[in-house]
Structures are given as C-alpha cells and as structure tokens.
Amino acid sequence: MLGDLRQKLTDRFGTSDERRLDSALRRSGPVVVPVRFHVVHNGRTGWLSVSDIRRQVDTLNAAYGGGRGGVDTGVRFRLTGYSHTNSSAWFYRPRTYESSMKRRLRKGGRGTLNIYTAAVGTDVLGFSTFPQWYRRAPHMDGVVVDFRSLPGGSFRNYDRGYTAVHETGHWLGLFHTFENGCRPPGDGIADTPYEARPADGCPHGRDTCPQRGGDPVHNFMNYAHDSCMREFTAGQGRRVRAAWAAYRGG
Ligand SMILES: [Zn+2]
C-alpha cells in the first residue's frame, strides 16, 4: 500500500519524498474535511444528540490540531450533515450489514468523511477503510465506531472520542504504530519508534524493539486507553497530507 502511495505522489508531483513535498502541500492551507455523521440506533439505545456529534467533531479537531499534546497535522474537520436511522439489524451487526448500511447512508465524494455509530462490539471499537481502497469500492469508504466511545460515552477506558480519532487516522492513510512489529518498514513513519505489539492500558517506559526509541504508547495510532493517548507526530502529519493530496483532495 505504501508503494501505491509513492507511485501516486511521483506521478503527480515528480517526487514521493514527503519532506520535499510538504512545503508545497502546506502552502495550500489546512485540509478541511467535511464530515457526514450517521447515527444508527435501536430505539433509544445508541441514539446520540447533535451536541454529542459536535463534541466528537471538536475532539477530532483538537487531536489533529495538536491540542492534546502532539503536532498540528494541518487537518481540520467540519460537520456538514448528520442522520439518524432506527435499525436493530444495522445497529447490532454493523459488520454484517456494512455494505447495505453504507449504500443507503453514505454521502459525498472521496474527500468526505462518513462516520457511522453503532454497537460495534467489545473486542473491536471501530473499523475504517484506507484511502487507497476508495477507487475500487467508493461506497464502502468511511469510519464506523462504537456509539459508547464518543466523548462522555459509557465505554470504560475508551470514552474520550479517541476511537474516532484513531479510525480517522486509518481513513487518512495511517497504519498502527505496531504495524510489522520490529520489522522494517514498521508503520512506514520515521519518527514513530518500532513497537513489537499493541500497547494495553498505559504502559510506562515500554521498549519492545531493538531499534532506537521507546514504544510510542501515547500515539493515537496505538491501542492504549483514551486517557493515555495524546499525539500524532510530525511524520504522521506529513503522511496524512501526502495521502490526502494523492487520494482524497483536489
Ligand atoms: Zn486501528
């Protein structure tokens, strides 16, 4: 998938070096992502208010703007619409009904972030598509998160809205910090140290790989508790801007 990104960037800009591309990409100003929010509920269960939705979008803006401790990635989000759909089948089995649910509800083009909330489950809190997948399956594009993971939700340890921040990271082209474990290229980002396995809870001083640097346990693209998460890195910021230029913008 990284190879596909490099090819796209080379075709379009004559280089795939994200550092060299970056000043040009930044000159065009922040990337503003329109957000369409889809609340799938079963009667009163899973129903979310407009202020719940707005708090989630605010959390995306804080996380991607560096307001929780990391860099400003140059990505912003703007709520442009929302819907409520009462369906117990879609609500309780969003994986099984993913295709029909998205075919019915999805709005916008390749640069529109569609976020769906449902009862995703207890092992997995959300799932997302990657920008490279859009061309082959545009109707499947988007992010699905558990309704209890929104800010102030009832999902223990995952109630600050960072599940949507994490899944949106995938939607923007980021891998997990533990991708490939200690084997190169890891997650393909130079300033997120290698990591053998996901962080659980909030481990202190963990360092699971022989390469330089402790595990990036506070990174949004890890699996730590929400109270432990706070940052994207400069390299991740460059990656999302490059992936945006290659797959979602313009
Ligand atoms: Zn993930």
Describe the structure in your own words.
With 250 residues, the chain is an alpha/beta fold. It has one domain (30-248): Collagenase (Catalytic Domain). It is built from seven helices and five strands; from the N terminus they run ααβαβααβββαα. The protein has helices at residues 2-13, 18-27, 50-64, 88-92, 98-105, 162-171, 234-248, and strands spanning 31-41, 75-86, 113-118, 126-128, 143-146. Strands 2-1-3-5-4 form a five-stranded mixed beta sheet. α1 crosses α7 (234-248) and α2 (18-27) packs across α7 (234-248). The longest helix has 15 residues, at 50-64. Zinc ion binds at residues 166, 170, 176. Residues 166, 170, 176 line the site of zinc ion.
Q: Please state the overall shape, judged from the principal axes of the Cα atoms.
A: globular
Mean pLDDT: 96
How many domain regions? 1
Distance between the termini: 21 Å
Q: Oligomer, anyone?
A: single chain
Uncertain ranges:
none
Strand content: 5-15%
Describe the strand arrangement of the main beta sheet, using strand numbers.
2-1-3-5-4
Q: How many DSSP-defined strands?
A: 5
Give the C-level CATH assignment: Alpha Beta
CATH topology: Collagenase (Catalytic Domain)
Structural class: alpha/beta
Q: Helix share of residues?
A: 25-40%
Number of discrete helical segments: 7
Element-by-element helix/strand order = HHEHEHHEEEHH
- What Rg do the Cα atoms give? 18 Å
